[in-house]
């Protein structure tokens, strides 16, 4: 009986893996977007096939299952008792906020239930009575926040840099001139937004020199600046520019708690005290004041500690891995210009992706994502590669490629 159940569970895992990793018939992901909402929902049902932690090349983070998440929380609270928060006050939330204020070099930090809310509240408060906010055309704020700025906060988002991973100072000047010269009934521009790393551009980090120029110009002209830094730690890990150096160019900075800090959700917004002190009221108005969030804040706090050192290791180990994989015939992994943790993986015609992915999953609990319409797999590096000896991961790939070859 238990053997049968075991077999059924294995089969379920296999099916959800196939769905989640796009090796079945669900629509292909967009090349520059990463996983779509639908495929992401499928992917989050992927389960480890063994007790050994999965090594995943799909997500920014560890992609814990509920069981693994609970185990981790127990481990964390055994090390140091998790203190509960109360409507966003005290407990592990306070510790998290203090840590983020320190890391970003800002006066204060505040917890919000989502990054979407952090972005929207930030631009609303920064903008004051001004109506216009300049945003990257490919940004989460412009493309993925359900027109919240227009429909909830009466702000008009003006997109810039269409088709580019990020915009330049000249693009910004042109856009400002265009709106100044072409609009008869003028309304003010209050805020300029930058997103970095850019989710819709495979995690490209906006060069700090470009941010610096734009920031100086905005300061000179009285425009506020907001950074959607959902994955800002990844930018820091790959460019060597510190979080506080990035943050110094902005009035407010949002950082995600779940992209790579492994919480189930949540966001932090940092800025000066005058600004951050207004946020809790805005969150309440929007219905976002949650009774307790310690399960997210304690997890994020845990992974925040030692992040820099761990990612130094991740980089060394992943360089080794990529080097070794590139020596296998039929495998090519290339970095992306100004990229962070996402690489382009392409397979020679003789290597079958589906066979390789299934082999890696079933035999080694290694997860590989689907190919886009150009045949490229967005090969994503995260901390999960530290959970095993790198030589065992390389050996698994060697065997997998051998099996997947024609
Ligand atoms: C760049 C960026 N900003 C903001 C968000 C929104 O975060 P949340 O899902 O917490 O609303 C995301 C989420 O995917 C994102 O990738």
UniProtKB/TrEMBL annotation:
It comes from the Bacteria. Its cofactor is pyridoxal 5'-phosphate. Pfam families: Beta_elim_lyase. Keywords: Aminotransferase, Pyridoxal phosphate, Transferase. GO terms for molecular function: transaminase activity. Residues 82-337 form the Aromatic amino acid beta-eliminating lyase/threonine aldolase domain. InterPro entries: ArAA_b-elim_lyase/Thr_aldolase (IPR001597), PyrdxlP-dep_Trfase (IPR015424), PyrdxlP-dep_Trfase_major (IPR015421), TAT_signal (IPR006311). SUPFAM superfamilies: PLP-dependent transferases (SSF53383). The keyword Transferase applies. Belongs to the threonine aldolase family. This is Aminotransferase class I/II-fold pyridoxal phosphate-dependent enzyme. It comes from Zhouia spongiae.
């Amino acid at each position: 009986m238990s053997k049968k159940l075991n077999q059924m569970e294995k089969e379920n895992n296999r099916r959800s893996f196939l769905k989640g990793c796009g090796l079945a018939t669900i629509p292909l992901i967009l090349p520059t977007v990463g996983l779509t909402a639908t495929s992401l929902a499928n992917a989050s049902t992927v389960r480890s096939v063994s007790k050994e932690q999965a090594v995943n090349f799909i997500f920014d983070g560890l992609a814990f299952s509920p069981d693994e998440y609970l185990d981790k929380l127990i481990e964390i609270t055994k090390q140091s008792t998790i203190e509960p928060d109360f409507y966003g006050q005290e407990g592990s939330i306070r510790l998290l906020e203090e840590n983020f204020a320190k890391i970003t070099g800002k006066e204060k930090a505040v917890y919000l239930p989502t990054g979407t809310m952090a972005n929207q509240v930030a631009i609303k408060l920064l903008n004051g009575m001004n109506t216009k906010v300049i945003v990257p055309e490919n940004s989460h704020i412009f493309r993925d926040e359900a027109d919240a700025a227009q429909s909830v906060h009466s702000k008009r988002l003006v997109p810039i840099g269409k088709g580019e991973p990020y915009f330049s100072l000249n693009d910004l000047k042109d856009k400002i001139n265009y709106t100044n010269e072409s609009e008869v009934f003028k309304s003010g521009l209050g805020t300029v937004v930058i997103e970095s790393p850019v989710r819709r551009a495979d995690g490209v980090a906006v060069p700090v020199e470009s941010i610096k120029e734009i920031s100086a110009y905005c300061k000179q002209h009285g425009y506020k600046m907001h950074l959607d830094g959902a994955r800002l730690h990844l930018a820091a890990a790959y460019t060597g520019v510190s979080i506080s150096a990035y943050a110094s160019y902005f009035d407010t900075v949002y950082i995600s708690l779940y992209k790579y800090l492994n919480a189930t959700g949540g966001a932090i917004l940092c800025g000066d005290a005058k600004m951050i002190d207004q946020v809790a009221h805005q969150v309440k108005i929007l219905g976002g004041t949650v009774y307790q969030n310690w399960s997210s804040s304690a997890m994020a706090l845990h992974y925040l500690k030692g992040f820099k050192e761990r990612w130094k290791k991740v980089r060394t180990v992943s360089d080794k891995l990529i080097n070794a994989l590139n020596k296998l015939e039929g495998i090519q992994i290339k970095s992306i210009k100004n990229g962070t943790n996402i690489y382009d993986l392409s397979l020679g015609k003789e290597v079958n992706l589906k066979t390789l992915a299934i082999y890696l999953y079933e035999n080694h609990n290694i997860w590989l994502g689907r190919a886009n319409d150009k045949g490229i797999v967005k090969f994503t590096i995260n901390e999960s590669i530290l959970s095993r000896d790198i030589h065992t991961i390389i050996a698994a790939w060697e065997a997998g490629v051998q099996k997947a070859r024609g």
